[in-house]
Amino acid sequence: MLDDLKIPNETKNQVYNDLFQPAASETGKILSRIPQLINAAFLPLDCWIAERQNHLEKTKQLLAENLKDADPDKIVPPEPYVAVPAIQALSYSMNSDELRTLYANLLAKSIYLDTKESVHPAFTEIIKNLSPLDCKVLKYIMESPYQEIGCYEFRVGAIGESSYHVSFPYVTEMTLGTAEEIATSIENLSRNNLIFPKDFCYRDDNKYSIIRDTPFFKDISAYFSANPEGNELRPYKMSIQSTSLGKTFYDICATPL
């Protein structure tokens, strides 16, 4: 554009230096910043990738500890459809002892010849669905006699009427968290088919007396003792038992090799 004007070359150079060069310089600075901004945007991802590699090394250490008494000749390559999802999921769970242990046991069983065929790929997805509290609740049930516990369902109905509504579904002896949190864990474990709440009453009342001694049971019972709004509490005896899937899952994922 300047070339179309009859302006001396010295003047053209001065105009370029005064007007266009600063703009070009600023554009160059912006363009040079783009890679820096991209690097900054990807920094959390880079850290996660680096940490994932660290988690992989920790996983190998966990496996080495788990397999320390195993027959070395029976350590074989795992099936990728089992190991890869488990390792990926484990990288998100290193800060939870409960979840990390489940994944480590699963991986150890998946590379050991005697147990490899018992490892179902669905186990990884099940662990993904569990919280640390879910793991504790499952452990409590699985380590109880016969892998089952007593349970109450709190039913509330108007005095003199047979109809009722369930005010609280699962009241147990467990004190691993609040009654609400434990009930949520029971729901989730049941949804994953690891346990099965049943409309079944044990003859042994000791399975229920221990529940009646919990603070939660006593507090709710005390509240309804005055029959608020003409309602009464009807604790209904039930049970929670392990399923076949739950037993296999626990043997593979919660029990060291």
- State which percent range the strand residues make up: 5-15%
- Count up the helices: 9
Shape: elongated
> Helix-strand pattern, N to C?
HHHHHEEHEHHEH
Structural class: alpha+beta
Q: Tell me the distance between the termini.
A: 80 Å
Regions with little confidence, pLDDT below 50 for 5+ residues: none
Rg (C-alpha, Å): 32 Å
Overall domain count = 3
User: Could you report the average pLDDT, rounded to the nearest whole number?
Assistant: 85
User: What's the quaternary structure here?
Assistant: single chain
Instruction: Give the strand order, joined by hyphens, for the main sheet.
Output: 2-1-4-3
> Could you describe the largest sheet, including whether it forms a barrel?
4 strands, antiparallel
Share of helix, binned: 40-55%
Protein architecture, described:
This protein is an alpha+beta fold and 257 residues long. It has three domains: 2-54; 65-130 and 249-253, no CATH class; 148-243, no CATH class. 55% of the residues lie in helices and 13% in strands. Strands 2-1-4-3 form a four-stranded antiparallel β-sheet. A hairpin with a 6-residue loop joins strand 1 (148-158) and strand 2. The radius of gyration is 32 Å and the shape is elongated.
What would you say about this model in short?
This protein is of the alpha+beta class and about 260 residues long. It has three domains: about 1-55; about 65-130 and about 250-255, no CATH class; about 150-245, no CATH class.
